[in-house]
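re: ur question from yesterday

yeah so i grabbed the chain u mentioned. its 181 aa long if i counted rite. heres the sequnce exactly as i have it in my notes:
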Amino acid sequence: ASAQSPRGLVLLNDHPFVGENFTGNDLGDLYVGGKVNLSSQQRGQPIALGLRGTVKFPPADDDGGAGTGEFDYFTDIILSKEINRSVELSGFTGAAFRGDPVGLSLSDGLRWGVGAAFGTRSNIRITTELHGEMPIDDQVVAATSGLVTGVDGSASPIVTELDSRTNAALAKVNLSRAESL
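ran it thru and got these structure tokens back, copy pasting raw so excuse formatting
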């Protein structure tokens, strides 16, 4: 994560203590989660539906910018459907609840995502994903300016305006099948 932008040093909602382009080889936060299936195509239901919960544990060193030092909580509803044993479509929506470090007010957010997998039962599978988050608040607010200092000596502002984030991913996965003699 980079805290430097064309606007100068900013406070990132996920990593507000980052003051340089690389945080080093530091321990980051630990995410632990689980999912409960409410319906499944494997059980003959028309669509798969699940609930997912995740907790971010804060073992990361917030001085280096690798974490916030606070717990975060995420909850999502997930839908998916395999079509003709070759394409799987999926989507999720949910919420992010962020713990506020001392001297900062971070924004919670509404999460969303859609994806597709092609060749769901073949040796080569291509996955695509588009996901993002819309912040509940428009800003990250610090109690004082200069909470974070950039490598160039610039000081972080009291208020950083937030934008909605959107990320895209494309991957090819080679699956090997074990064959018996």
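noticed a couple things. Residues 18 and 65 are 4 Å apart (CA to CA). also The chain has a mean pLDDT of 87.
anyway ttyl
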